[in-house]
Specification:
- The structure is a homodimer.
- Chain A has helices at residues 78-87, 112-127, 134-149, 157-162, 197-202, 210-228, 232-238, 245-248, 255-264, 286-303, and strands at 21-30, 39-54, 59-64, 95-101, 165-170, 175-179, 185-191, 207-209, 269-272, 279-283, 307-313, 320-323.
- Chain A is of the alpha+beta class.
- Chain A folds into 2 domains: 7-180 and 315-323, Ribosomal Protein S5, domain 2 (2-Layer Sandwich), CATH 3.30.230.10; 185-313, GHMP kinase, C-terminal domain (Alpha-Beta Plaits).
- In chain A, the strands form 2 sheets. In chain A, strands 1, 2, 3, 4, 5, 6 and 12 form a 7-stranded mixed sheet that branches.
- Chain A is globular.
- The two termini of chain A are 37 Å apart.
Chain lengths: 324, 324
């Protein structure tokens, strides 16, 4: 089952009401191996499509234009939760109608909830003549993440809104740093198993060995330096996670084989995307990334696990306005 | 007692034998707040002066040209230990005479042992027509650190040899990354108390909270990004250590006051140099750094503790050949 994420959704564009704005909100890869909880990046595909417009009556109406049966109660929908947080800081009684066409499968580990939350607030902010800063928008959207996983994390939200690779230096107070990166090809495989973010978080030890933490921060320092210096070899050497991956990867069948075969095929490195089950690999060129995709496919064919693969690149724009 | 480190040593240059080489081996600041065990930088002053030449008979002769009464047995002297490690990889039975004039006070926390070890092997390598790489030299010099502190660490050795700010991404295998940095003024105060590296290491907890480790690697990623992006504000925000400093700073009287007064005087930030007792602060300009120096002086005057202060800049050369 090798193919695009939900490619059957390629049909008519959202909304024909003549008003409002449409955005594409990209998938994102959080954690980035050694950068647990602090690094993430946006990819070009897949992305969610969302349309927002003002309505006459105060409040939020959510219309799902896909088959995921996500909640339409704004307080139970991640996009709704993000919009509600934004509306708390607006003095006027506004009304929004939000149409969502998800193309990023919920629970796949590539920031599906972040795309909904981030897309909604970026789109609404366009309607509001950009009265809020990007950092404000991250703050609002984190309420969607809290609803989805119980934790206000920003390592999917920030790259979704800022684009590129982002560092969350600090979450309280929020400090987001955009990191330039050389061209990178991203291959993602999504084995169709369920890994709940809350389970993936619960499995982690709350204490770690200082020596392991030192190794981890040596790697994250190396990764940041590699990205900013366009040093592919250093990026590759730094893509090592001695703390989280050894614990979480046991939840993902085939993980070790995907990783070793991808690296043998020339990938710089990679690991669990977010809290999984998707696995991502970075490559310097498209041919290598294509080879990595074949290896991923072969592993899950052999295991008899339904899966999707994706070959894309880093998205430097973040949530994109399609029409106004 | 505000003044230069051992400024009374400013007299005739080492060696007048007409042969051999003389080097200046600079002091270094290891750990760099959040970069425990992985980041360090070299400073322009103080530095040790060393002279090496070949002798007729195999082995190492060490002559101390200062008043520290350091061991002259090569196996008990950090420079000797480094040279012995180098000689193990040379097939010929060579003889060296090494004269050392230390200007970096042993035990002050600014890489005195690293300067001896690094200076010795860099100087010897010049005599040997640079047959060894810089990475080899770091490897040899780490034997001096092992003798001094019981641990083969490279966060003083690497910046001493490479100059500038260095990242030790990994110690086994050794992976050293040079990090460009914007101009930075460095103010150091050395309160005249003894903090043994082994004690400073022993006091650390071997386990840390994952949430604290995450905060630490957010900061180190921010610091590396700040250095490479010439972003002084980001450097300042990232100079935070939630793991090591709270434990070790209790060994240094006046630490909290030095830090708060230095930051109030405009320093970007700073912390314990190496394992102490020296404290360093980074500033964007010389006037601020001079103000920081006055604050440091005032704190230790009030406490009645003998101390030395130093105002210098980052040294981008590392061990420097003076004459050949």
């Amino acid at each position: 089952m090798n193919g695009h994420f939900l490619s059957f959704f390629y049909y008519s564009p959202l909304s024909t009401d003549g008003g409002g704005v449409t955005v594409h909100a990209p998938a994102t890869v959080a954690n980035m191996v050694c950068g647990f909880d602090v690094l993430g990046f946006a990819v070009k595909e897949p992305y969610d499509e969302m349309h927002i417009c003002f309505t006459g009556k105060p409040g939020i109406t959510i219309i799902n234009k896909d088959d995921y049966n996500l909640p339409t109660d704004p307080e139970k929908n991640v996009a709704g939760a993000a919009l509600l947080a934004m509306m708390e800081e607006i003095d006027e009684p506004l009304g929004f109608e939000l149409q969502i066409r998800k193309r990023i499968k919920p629970g796949s580990g590539v920031g599906s909830s972040a795309a909904s939350a981030a897309g909604a607030v970026v789109a609404a902010n366009h309607l509001l003549q950009n009265r809020f800063s990007r950092e404000d928008l991250v703050r609002f959207a984190m309420n969607g993440e809290k609803l989805a996983s119980g934790v206000k994390h920003a390592d999917n939200i920030a790259p979704c809104i800022y684009g590129g690779v982002t560092l969350i230096r600090s979450i309280f107070p929020l400090d987001i740093v955009s990191l330039a990166a050389p061209p990178l090809y991203v291959t993602i495989v999504h084995p169709q198993i369920e890994v709940r973010t809350s389970d993936a978080r619960g499995i982690l030890k709350r204490q770690v060995q200082l020596k392991d933490a030192i190794r981890q921060w040596g790697n994250i320092a190396g990764l940041v330096a590699g990205l900013l210096k366009n040093d592919y070899d250093l990026i590759g050497r730094s893509l090592e996670d001695v703390l989280i991956e050894p614990v979480r990867s046991i939840l993902i069948p085939g993980f070790d084989e995907v990783k070793s075969r991808s690296k043998a095929a020339g990938a710089l490195g990679g690991g669990i995307s977010g809290s999984g089950p998707s696995i991502f690999m970075l490559s310097k060129d498209e041919t290598t990334a294509e080879g990595v995709k074949q290896e991923m496919h072969a592993v899950y064919e052999r295991l008899g696990l339904e899966h999707h693969t994706y070959l894309t690149t880093i998205n430097n724009e973040g949530v994109k306005l399609i029409k106004n």
